[in-house]
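Hi team,

Below is the intake form for Beta-fructofuranosidase from Prunus persica. Please confirm the fields before the structure is written into the shared record.

FORM ID: S-0412
PROTEIN: Beta-fructofuranosidase
ORGANISM: Prunus persica
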Amino acid sequence: MDLMDTVLNKKLGLVFVFAASVFLVINNNGVEASHNIYSRLQNAAAVEVKQLHRTGYHFQPPKHWINDPNAPMYFNGIYHLFYQYNPRGAVWGNIVWAHSVSKDLINWEALPPAIYPSKPFDINGTWSGSATILPGNKPIILYTGLDADKHQIQNYAVPANYSDPFLREWIKPDDNPLVVPSQEMNSSQFRDPTTAWWHNGHWRILVGGKRKHRGMAWLYRSIDFKYWVKAKHPLHSAPETGMWECPDFFPLALNGRSGVDTSKVGEDVKHILKVSLDETRYEYYTLGKYFPEKDRYVPDNTSVDGRAGLRLDYGNFYASKTFFDPSKNMRILWGWANESDAADDDKAKGWAGVQTIPRVVWLSPDAKQVVQWPIKELETLRGQKVDMNNQNVEQGQHVEVKGITAAQADVEVTFSFGSLEKAEEFDPNWANLDAQTVCSLRRSDVPGGVGPFGLLTLASQNLEEFTPVFFRVFKTKENKHKVLMCSDAKSSSLRPFNEKLYRPSFAGFVDVDLSADKKISLRSLIDHSVVESFGAGGKTCITSRVYPTLAVNDAAHLFVFNNGTEPVTVQTLSAWSMNAPQQMNQNLEF
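The structure came back. Fields below:
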């Protein structure tokens, strides 16, 4: 019996086991590194899947571990999501390319795995990659395989039947691999090929890597998509950033919110290079100019090119991937809301990991950052609605938002305030601190001037547990205002602190001028163990994974709060109970 028979016919599950010598990454910042090995658990199929903390409307399979959203794609009216999945347990291991399809990005039908280890060029692993639509409307997948020597090499797969609207079966031709690391490169740090782009007679892709401690976006060119040649220079690199995983390189229009094809170049677009930092388990991105004739990317000088750079999401968010949706003329982003590190026995809950809600991405009007917003289709899941308008909130007040399912909700709110005079001084000693550290020093229970104000999500009735999402306004020595947005998990759970539960104070600064309107907006998508928040219309985004013990299901509450001396007004607030999609991979079987 071959592996295809095992997976598709007899549904006995995958039987291969990765050896302990598979390359490991460091578990930093308390976030689950995707390549950690739990040999005791990685083949232990869940007997009972615990429903506590499972999401209600985010993308998840019925059980087991998921990570990177490898290759989102739109093809012939169908959305495809390929993602990393362990069909045998709730920890990383035995990874296959799971495959689901949708017509609306909300309801998903699971198909058989598209790719799984079975040939010499991927026998030890089928890791992340991308999808590209070639001329003639022919999709192709590029992915990282681990060969018999555990070298990371780049392979391709094609549909067995292009006329199948769901592309159920994929073939890995025997002329793989397409790209192998050269002798001077580190073959254990060479992975995650990007979506290809075309210019002046050549296809181009990037492969993530590192040289010493320098992150590298290795560039390869091909005329026919079969024979690839490494460029003399990488497209870009940056010192002291370590391994660059899951690179993504794409253009955004300088004006408006419309998306553009990945191959678009010219003066009317700006390019974005996003990388996932293996050492920190965070991502960062730069905006800049791509010079196609030289195949060089030069970041603008408007943000840091390194660990302290701009991030698409300042929370539990990793291995993100965008794709161009020609049906809506939009660029859409998926991200992995990675698991927080929990006690070893918690891995037996039967599931781990979710994908974020897909987001539309575009450039801010000043072209200095990416803006994101949940796809419009999410609103089809909205149910019972409540409103709160012109509600004044004094210092120390908590006003409950009643009438919705607070554990599974969508909340949009605009806060206003009369004056910025009471804004706290931004301590000069914080100049070299990141936003997360500042938030840990000025949490939601620390009184301020203008703020902290915001939402207490997934809160217990008496506030023994809550996850605050809030703003705090500072005044700098230049008499300018600096806005901090936090999603602080410190008080999210009563689980003992001696357990390995990551409770960070995720935060980012918000590039917004409050002096004119003196108002700021917040949207939070609350889903049992996920809180996705979008500040100032999506300029700053934070995803938190939290695991309350009291504030669960019907015992969860939602409050508006203010701990600043400046009164805050809830100008408008709309909150909806969120329904579950009609279909969410219920048919996934192995």
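SUMMARY LINE: DSSP finds two helices and 38 strands in the chain.

Thanks, M.
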